[in-house]
Amino acid sequence: MTRLIVKLPAGCTELPARTYLIRHYGISNSQWKRLKHTGDFRKNGLSANATHTMVQNGDILTFESEKPRNPDAFPIELQDLPLDIRYEDNFLLAVNKPAGQLVHPLTVEPTGTLANAVLGYYRRKGEPHLFHPLHRLDRQTTGLVLIAKEPQIQHMLTKNGEKRFHRIYLAIAHGTLPQPAGIIDKPLGRSDGSFIRQEVRAPEYGGKTARTHYRVLATSGSLSLVRLALDTGRTHQIRVHLASLGCPLLGDDLYGTPDTRIARQALHAAQLSFRHPITHADCCINAPLPPDMHAIITSSFPFASI
Known about the structure:
Strand 7 (about 85-90) and strand 8 (about 90-95) form a beta hairpin. The protein is elongated. By secondary structure, it is an alpha+beta fold. The strands form 4 sheets. Strands 7, 8, 9, 10, 11, 12, 15, 16, 17 and 18 form a 10-stranded mixed β-sheet that branches. The chain has a 4-stranded antiparallel β-sheet with strand order 1-6-3-4. Helices cover about 15% and strands about 30% of the residues.
């Protein structure tokens, strides 16, 4: 079992432990049923009846979560791979993913992914966590991926399908966008006959709501340096939305054309911000530009303010 410790924040008025853990900590009803029968539920270090316990400001709850886990038996291979960790606490991990790395393994590519690396890292630390990413990045997109250490933390930050974190991307695009800043509000769906390619697609043909906010930071010749924020997280959303304006990402060989200046699409997940689901602190995490994008920005946009 994994032993969890929950400290109630300042200002929390008295309420049942069950109510607090379900409403504020993301414990499901099924998890609660297992929890209350473990026989080792404690409040402020003392054994307590989980069903009847009342909690308030500053109380500390400890309890067992989930079933015993053997990391070596988990189907994803645990590997000792480099990890650029940008944030970590007992609940969350944020990693700066390099270009060329998948987030999840595939049947034809079961190793070398971010999941393999993170699980290997947990094993080296003697921690039993599984891999609970809150979002994904394309293989060739660099930058921050936020990972929950327990499923209830993942649930709290993606409750009801709403991602409770804010993502900022930096991109280099071909052409000039129609306005210095704006919102691209176009539904997206998978192209007919393709398992990979996405397109702007009307809702009656399977398109799902997709909104991207953009701001042009600088222009240089045929290139634009763009800051983007997502309201939604559709597959290839930024790539398709910019291409739909006639401004595909530099180096994007799926929605634009290859480019000798960069061997991938010029897209970097530069910042993540969120209200921490347990501590309630405001968190803002940054990842530096990768070398390939940094070189292009330095030479083409030397005075840009990023």
